[in-house]
Amino acid sequence: MSDTSPTILWLRRDLRLADHPALLAAVKRSGPVIPVFIRDHSVDSLGAAPKWRLGLSLAQLAKRLDDMSSQLIFRSGEAMAVLEQLISETGATAVHWSRLYDPDAIARDTLIKGALKQRGVEAESFAGHVLFEPWTVETKTGGFYRVYSPMWRAVRDRTVPEPQAAPSKLPAPETWPETETLDQWAMGAAMKRGAPVCLPHQRVGEEAARDRLDWFMANSIPPYKDDRNMPALDATSGMSENLTYGEISPRQCWHAGQRALDEGGGRGAEHWLKELVWREFAYHLVYHTPEILAGNWKSDWDAFPWNEDEDHPEVAAWKQGRTGEPFVDAAMREMYVTGKMHNRARMIVASYLTKHLMTHWKIGMRWFEDCLTDWDIAANAMGWQWTAGSGPDAAPYFRIFNPETQAEKFDPDGVYRRRWIAEGHENPTKTALSYFDAVPKSWNLSASALYPERIVDLSGGRNRALQAYEARTF
Ligand SMILES: Cc1cc2nc3c(=O)[nH]c(=O)nc-3n(C[C@H](O)[C@H](O)[C@H](O)COP(=O)(O)OP(=O)(O)OC[C@H]3O[C@@H](n4cnc5c(N)ncnc54)[C@H](O)[C@@H]3O)c2cc1C
């Protein structure tokens, strides 16, 4: 039975129109659809870069909706109160949203669903942020996967429904409810003077994401398995930025990978699908073991003598890309300027912080949370705990990446390091110089200064970490 009263489409990390089950179901109800984005605590508590990048995504989506004679309503406040207010203003009888899987979102959404249903509003949540919802993949004994490879084997041949097209039209209400504006929200306020430097490195919105995915599939799939480890190359998809805000759906990515596989994409295509399943693995872990976000996944690591002083000079040097270790510094600067960091580099800087500097992974995780425009709650926590050794299916603590030999292997000609390090070069690259435009003045950095001495001798740092590991009491 169709209902001609409005449906509120509560958007969160699903900022797209294609392959959007919650949106399609709203359109199907026949009445007007009122898309709304709520700036609640989950938005206010975002780090500087992801919050700014979210603002860009919202602006883009608002424009697309406008072009379709629809509108994106911006409201701030506690989500339940905002939805109740909108329901009474618009006479909406349904609220739709796409499910999220972290503990805070689950707690909020569960409360809201219960309360809305109680007042007779159709509150319905839909899949869309992951390929396989966490409760749909089980081990033979009925638990969840704590190890990646068997999970990959369990899902690789599953049928994933084809992505759905965007609706051609969104029925609009006769009068739109009032809206706040993105300008009022100042989503980039904490980016200070870094934002203009960071902006050209962002690929914002659904169309840009789809174009990039098409380009990547046409050009980069065959060599992906080997080239994906080389940070100087543009050899990975760059989809993380779009997946995290839902500007593209994981199903669109999965099917693009499957098509490439069918068309002879071989090892490259299969490896790319495997990477998408790492993202799934991270979400399943967050859902089943939410403690992964805040504490050691393996609790015996609680006894490890980490440095937990965020203000320690070595931590400052790591954050500022001034450790004197070129591969590490290049990567930290890449992140500051672009909001992204190559995966190989993420592993190296995380290993260096948690092992050579023996600093708690939480400090690194928080810095990434502030700097990454592709920040993803699940992938970030898993990545840090995996590298530190405290996480599921983790690299053992004693496997310590040597940044120097890693650089020889994965940046043999030094292109990546030169791209990001200006000091000591007669003709520094534009990208390396742009770092100095992005950093806050208070860091007091200059491209013409001397490149810093190593803050930690690599073998000394490695031995210190191994000794602490061997002397551990767990
Ligand atoms: C310490 C650390 C922190 C990380 N923090 C984040 C984060 O905040 N956000 C984020 O999206 N990824 C994070 N990753 C994972 C990974 O580095 C990025 O997903 C990847 O670099 C994104 O580039 P891409 O889209 O070009 O990847 P591609 O190589 O093209 O891979 C395709 C997609 O697969 C997924 N993927 C690939 N590798 C991983 C992985 N190791 N874990 C989970 N998903 C993966 C991503 O969604 C990615 O977009 C982190 C890894 C580490 C080691």
From TrEMBL:
Protein's name in the database: Deoxyribodipyrimidine photo-lyase
Gene Ontology molecular function, alphabetical: deoxyribodipyrimidine photo-lyase activity
The protein's required cofactors: (6R)-5,10-methylene-5,6,7,8-tetrahydrofolate; FAD
Family affiliation: Belongs to the DNA photolyase family.
Short name of one Pfam family: DNA_photolyase
Transmembrane regions listed in the UniProt entry: none
EC number annotated for this UniProt entry: 4.1.99.3
Keyword annotations from UniProtKB, A to Z: Chromophore, FAD, Flavoprotein, Lyase
InterPro entries attached to this UniProt entry: Crypto/Photolyase_FAD-like_sf, Crypto/Photolyase_N_sf, Cryptochr/Photolyase_FAD-bd, Cryptochrome/DNA_photolyase_1, DNA_photolyase_N, Rossmann-like_a/b/a_fold
Gene3D superfamilies the record matches: 1.25.40.80, DNA Cyclobutane Dipyrimidine Photolyase, subunit A, domain 3 (1.10.579.10), HUPs (3.40.50.620)
Keyword Amino-acid biosynthesis found: no
SUPFAM superfamilies from the UniProt entry: Cryptochrome/photolyase FAD-binding domain (SSF48173), Cryptochrome/photolyase, N-terminal domain (SSF52425)
Photolyase/cryptochrome alpha/beta domain ranges (all copies): 5-131
Top-level EC class as recorded in UniProt: lyase
Statement: the UniProt record of this protein carries the keyword Flavoprotein: yes
